[in-house]
Amino acid sequence: MAKGQVTNAPTQLSNSQLTNPAIPDFPATIPSFVVILMIVAIANQKGGVGKTTTAINLAAALALRGKPTLLIDLDPQANSTMSFLDIAQVTRSVYDAITDGELTMRDVIQPTPLEKLWIAPSRIALAKLEGKLLGEMDSHFRLKDKLEPVCKDYPDVVIDCPPTLGLLTVNALVAATHLLIPIQSSYFALEGTDDLLETIEKVRARPNPALRILGVVITMHDKRTALARDIRLQIQKVFGGKVFNTVITKSVRLEESPAYKESIFTFAPDSTGATEYYRLCEEVIDRA
Questions:
Q1: pTM for the full model?
Q2: Under a CB-based contact definition with an 8 Å cutoff, are residues 221 and 250 in contact?
Q3: Which of 94, 104, 173, 240 makes the best surface tag, with the fewest CB within 10 Å?
Q4: Is 242 within the bounds of a domain?
Q5: 266 to 17, 33, 249: CA distances (angstroms)
Q6: DSSP labels for 165-191?
């Protein structure tokens, strides 16, 4: 299959299909002289905080702005991959690109049904990466080295990290220009953030001093409850100006869209989730 061609793909989303007046039209094209490389790692070692949902929909929003965007699924659970592809049809994954010296990232990248969005898929084999690279001098740089040759083709890259602070996440932080941290609006919201921030500082100290914390996005927020409002204030107190203005609220549509192998923008373009992720995309671009 040629790059950019998808068979049996859902109807492509056009600007006119964004019926929600809160969402401005996506620009049809980006001027050719605008070449800004942004590699955003989405990480939090706490599971169930909306990392994959944020990765899928941020990548989709960036693609809808007209620039080629690459989503890298670095989680062995492969939820980002399954949101766009039939996992049974994935024969080569990020694991193969990282561990096989003969393969490049281009050999594993596949188009998605959304125009301008490609994905480097994951498979369960990725869980073996840490053991495979144990003792290798360049183990922390494998993703960065494989990604650099394709960056000119994909100026926007989003990396969906696993819920750990192991070698996979460190590879993402070494390769990234920016870090986005999703934090669920729940009682245990800030649990483990100290460990994450410590890992970030270690990465900044040597392998990637240019890594910037893009911000913290509050996810799965239920604004009807006093607890959620209190947790939001607590998160803002800890992270200050790093907290995005956009808050991602709980949404059935956001939960349903991956089952139909779509982003929120094609599945429910007039939903609250689409509005919020478009606004988050705008904030990400402004900050980056």
A1: 0.87
A2: yes
A3: 240
A4: yes
A5: 9, 29, 19
A6: SSHHHHHHHHH-SEEEEEEESSTTTTT
